[in-house]
Structures are given as C-alpha cells and as structure tokens.
Design brief:
This protein has 599 residues and is an alpha+beta fold. It has 15 helices and 17 strands. Strands 11, 12, 13, 14, 15, 16 and 17 form a 7-stranded mixed sheet that branches. The protein has a 5-stranded antiparallel sheet with strand order 2-1-5-4-3. Strands 7-6-10-9-8 form a 5-stranded antiparallel sheet, sandwiched between helices. The longest helix has 53 residues.
C-alpha cells in the first residue's frame, strides 16, 4: 500500500506541475507580447500598470521586466519573499524556458520562467515570472490522503480516477497551448475555446482578452503608419523645403527638396543649426529676428531672408513657420516651409528696372522735345540779336567804348548759341555728319590729350583692343563724350592713389542683356568702359545723372548739360550708356555702340 500511495502522489504532482508549467509558459509569452512596446520605449508607467494586473492571478509570486542585460525596468513581488531585486541576467533569452525550480524562506516551491520580449522580430528585453507551487503541494497532499483511503478500499478504482483526473487537466492545457501557437503565428482572430470553469477557463478568457487588445493595438498602429506614410509622401513630393527644428534651432527633419534649394542632402543638415546656412554678413541680423519669434512663440510669416548654397552662391528665401508647443505650452521647436524666390525676385527687379528706364526715357524724351523747341526759338532770337549787333559794329568807331561793348554782346551771343547747340545735341535735333570710323585710334587720341591735362596727378590705365573695328559716328563727338566722363572722374577724386581705367572691347549683345536695356538690340557692339575709384555717387543722384540742367556742382560752376549731352550723343548713334556706382568705391560708365563693317 505504501508503494501504491507513493505512485499516486507522484503521478498527481507531475500532472499538476505540467499543467502549471504550461500555464506559466503561456502566461509569460502573452505578457511579454503585451509589454513589448512599453519595453522598447522604457515607459515605466505603462509597464507598472501591466505588471499590477498580474496580481489577480493567485499563483504569480513576482515579475521582473528587463530592458537589456544590466537594465531592470521594474519588479513587482506579490507573495514570494526570497526574490532578490538586485539580480541581473547573464544574457537575454532567445525563447521561453523554465529558468529554475527553487524554494523561498518558508520552503514554498517556486517555478521561475524567463521569456524574451520581441518587437518587430527583434529581442528588446525579457520577462522573468515566478509562480508559487504551494497550491499544487496542498492539492497533491489532499488528493493523496483521499487516494490512500480509496486505495485501501478500491485500489484499481483509485488508479482509474487518477488517470481520468490527469486527462481532465492536460486536455484544456493542450487546447490553450494550441491557441497560443496560433496567436504567435499571427492569427489574431483565433479564439481559445474552453468550457472549463476552473482557473484554466479563466486563463483561456484572459488569453482571448489579451488577443483582442493586441488586435486593436495592431489596427491602431496600422492606421498611424498609414497617416505617417501619407505625410511623408506629401512632404517629399512638395516643391518647397519642409523642415522642423528644435528649441535651439537644430534641424530634426527636412524633406529632400533642400537639395534643390541649398545643394545639401537632407541627411547632411540634420543636427545642424538653421543659421549655419545664412550668409556670414546676414547671419546676426536674421538670427536676432528668428530667435525673437522663438521667444515670443509667434508665427513666422513671409519672412524674406538669404540662404548660402553649397556652391557659395546666395539665394533669396521666403520662410513661413509655426511654433510647436508641448501640453504645458512650452515651445519645443518650429516647423514650416522655405521657398526659393531668387528667380522670381530677380525677374521682379528686372521688370521694375525696365519700368524705371521706360519712365526715365519718357521723361527725358519730353524734356528733350521741350529743349529742342526752346533751343530753336532761342537760336532765332540770338540770330536776330547777333545780326543787328554786327550791323551796329559796322556803324561805330572801332576805338569807341560802344564798339567794345557791342563786341562783348557778340561774345555773349556766341556763348549762348553754343549752349543752345548743346541743348539740340541732347534732344538729338542736332547731329554732326556720322561716318564709319575706326574706334580704337579715336580713343587713343583722346586719352593722349587727357593724360597731358592731368599731368600724372591721377593714374590713367588703358585696356584697348585694337581690333574692335568700326562704328558709325562723328569722331569729335566721341572724343567729347570720353573727355566729359573722364573730367567728371577727375573731379570725383579726393584721395591719393586715384586711377581712371578706360577699356575698349568687342561684345555680342544677347537676349538677356538686350532685355535689360530697351535701346539695345541683339548684335555686335563695341563696349567702352570708364572706371574710377573716386568717392562714388549716391543712389538718389545716380537716378538723375543724365537729366539736363541737373548738377551737384556749386552755382556758376556747371550748366548740368554735360552728361545729358553725352547721353544724347550716344543715343543718336543708336547706342546706350549706363552707369554703376557705390559710395566710397567708385563709378563705372559703360558705353555700347553698334559695330559696322569697314568701308
């Protein structure tokens, strides 16, 4: 009878232990799946809430969750006193297995299970689960006493009852194991069937509930991934540069359009500050404006600024951005859009320049028409005065004071006629006879005269192309133009080491250059450039340098017709004259005259 009792005790214990082992393995596996996302992001609150739910299972003694070998995220001890909270793992488990069978201080047997935490096919941590076997011992002892009693009466009947009892335990467990395998294979729609009202039935219900939660979580993740993909598709297909920076101004996101705008790949600018891509001379000003918006948490709207491309060129950018605020209202960054408006701005500036040229041309044409009428009438009056004065001279004694006064009148009339002639030149109503002239000898001759007049006080630099060919013009008027501009350059010199550089070259006018100057047409031209390093011309004066009677000289020291006459001469030969200047650096006059064929 002792041998029979031992056999029954061992059989019952082994069956119940197998049931507990399978249930523990299943519970550990499902729990590891549920906490995988929390382990990945180390969300202690989420893990703590999940661990506390295990307290409802009466046989769970403790649970520990590890992030890696040396990082224990949480430990919860429920009924087992021997567990040491300071222990670590030698290695992360690759599969679920029984770690050890031990006893606590009260000699209660404990079944310890280790299972890996897997997220997207990668092991990110481990779950250590301890299950108390005290209930098994008690159950075994109770059943053993009953079995011994029954064995004394009906030995064979007891054996049959024990066998049937073991089957009633293992079959539901096997059903649970099969269900877990189906769920592990990704079949989240599988439901574990169980009519058992015991703990096994409760475990089946818990598995089905965890599977439903996992199914809902998977659906939510799929929806989120679709939304994220939609944003990425929109951002990457945009022609604008979409970006995001943190509170310090470091780029944390950029779409690929930045390569078209700045020349850098999006991966390169991540981690760098937005002001690293400002031109050095603009950086301080733009940084102040942007960080002021950061401080005030204000929207950045249509902010015009400059970017420095990888090739060293500057571009014009319009920026729009909004602050990113955390739940407490703290600014944690900005996100927005940059658009390259360089070409648009250049086109706008060119259009504005052409409109300004057109208005100036119309203005100058009106002034020229008026000047022409005045000059003609003035010449008629002067001719009358001169005629009668000359007749009066013939009737007076050459030694008389009257004769001397009449000669002064004649001299004044001649000066007035020259002024009228200048006005006619400006209005292009007066034109010397033009002929094909070789331009380089004319330039060299006038420079020779000019050098003699300045007597080495200013350095005269020459860059003359002797093969520039011919232009249709009057050589005297061309020399007058060069002398007038060079004389103005001399007057602008107020520092040592002054120079005037005269260049002559051939140039072919293309569509781009012709579009910026309404009087230029496509074709072959000669280009005369006169550059000095004088004090320069301010913008307001620069807009009026070709206006007749406009002068910056003192009263009585200039008529203001010099440059207006120069412009009139050049335009009378279907040419163009432009001027560029910067205060403190100097001025460049550029003359374009159509080239002609030699006679």
């Amino acid at each position: 009878m002792g041998a029979t009792s031992f056999f029954l005790l061992n059989n019952i214990r082994q069956n119940m232990l197998e049931s507990f082992r399978n249930r523990g393995l299943l519970l550990a596996t499902e729990f590891a799946k549920k906490v995988a996302e929390g382990v990945l992001i180390e969300d202690i609150l989420l893990l703590d809430n999940s661990a506390n739910k295990l307290e409802t299972y009466p046989d769970i003694g403790y649970v520990s969750i590890y992030g890696d070998l040396n990082t224990k995220l949480i430990t919860r001890i429920f009924i087992i006193e021997t567990f040491e909270d300071n222990q670590t793992l030698k290695s992360l488990p690759q599969e679920t297995y029984l770690s050890s069978l031990l006893r606590d201080k009260k000699r209660i047997p404990v079944l310890e299970i280790l299972t890996p935490v897997i997220y997207e096919n990668e092991i990110v941590g481990a779950v250590q689960l301890g299950m108390s076997l005290q209930r098994i011992d008690k159950e075994v002892m109770n059943r053993t006493r009953s079995s011994i009693f029954l064995v004394t009466v009906f030995i064979m009947l007891s054996l049959m009852v024990s066998y049937l009892l073991s089957l009633s335990i293992t079959q539901p467990i096997n059903a649970l194991v099969h269900g877990v395998k189906m769920i592990s294979a990704g079949k989240l729609s599988h439901i574990v069937e169980s009519n058992d009202k015991s703990e096994i039935g409760e475990l089946a219900d818990s598995i089905n509930k965890m599977t439903a939660d996992l199914r809902n979580t998977t659906v939510s993740i799929n929806i989120l991934e679709k939304e994220q993909q939609r944003f990425r598709d929109v951002a990457e297909s945009s022609g604008d540069w979409i970006w995001e920076v943190d509170a310090q101004g470091r780029y944390v996101y950029s779409n690929h359009t930045v390569e078209n705008i700045l020349g850098y790949k999006s991966e390169y600018i991540l981690g760098k500050f937005f002001y690293d891509f400002y031109p050095p001379n603009e950086k301080e000003e733009f940084m102040t404006k942007v960080f002021t918006a950061f401080h005030n948490k204000k929207e950045i709207k249509d902010f015009i600024n400059y970017g420095l491309r990888k090739d060293g060129n500057n571009i014009i950018i319009v920026t729009t951005g909004v602050p990113i605020l955390d739940p407490e209202g703290k600014m944690v960054g900005y996100r927005g859009v940059n658009r390259d408006i360089t070409k648009t701005k250049q086109a706008s500036d060119e259009k504005e320049n052409l409109q300004r040229q057109l208005l100036q041309s119309q203005k100058m044409e009106s002034i020229g028409t008026m000047a022409s009428g005045i000059a003609h009438n003035f010449n008629n009056i002067l001719a009358t005065i001169r005629g009668y004065t000359e007749m009066a001279l013939d009737d007076t004694d050459q030694n008389s004071r009257t004769h001397s006064d009449l000669q002064k009148v004649i001299k004044g009339v001649i000066s007035a006629q020259k002024l009228a002639q200048q006005m006619l030149i400006y209005s292009r109503s007066y034109k010397e006879e033009a002929q094909n002239i070789a331009i380089s000898p004319v330039i060299k001759e006038v420079l020779s005269m000019f050098k003699a007049s300045v007597k080495g006080a200013i350095e005269i630099r020459e860059n003359i192309d002797n093969n520039c060919g011919y232009v249709l013009a009057d050589s005297n008027q061309i020399q007058h133009v060069i002398l007038n501009i060079c004389t103005n350059s001399v007057h602008s010199m107020n520092k040592p080491n002054g120079f005037i550089e005269i260049s002559l070259s051939r140039i072919s006018i293309d569509v781009g250059l012709a579009s910026r100057h309404k009087d230029l047409k496509e074709g072959d031209y000669v280009k005369i450039s006169i550059e000095d390093n004088g004090h320069g011309i301010d913008k307001d004066t620069l807009d009026r340098v070709f206006e007749p009677f406009f002068t910056t000289k003192e009263v009585g020291k200039g008529t203001g017709l010099g440059l207006s006459m120069v412009q009139g001469i050049i335009k009378s030969y279907n040419g163009e004259i432009t001027v560029e200047s910067e205060v403190g650096k100097g001025t460049i006059f550029t003359i374009y005259l159509p080239r002609t064929n030699a006679i």
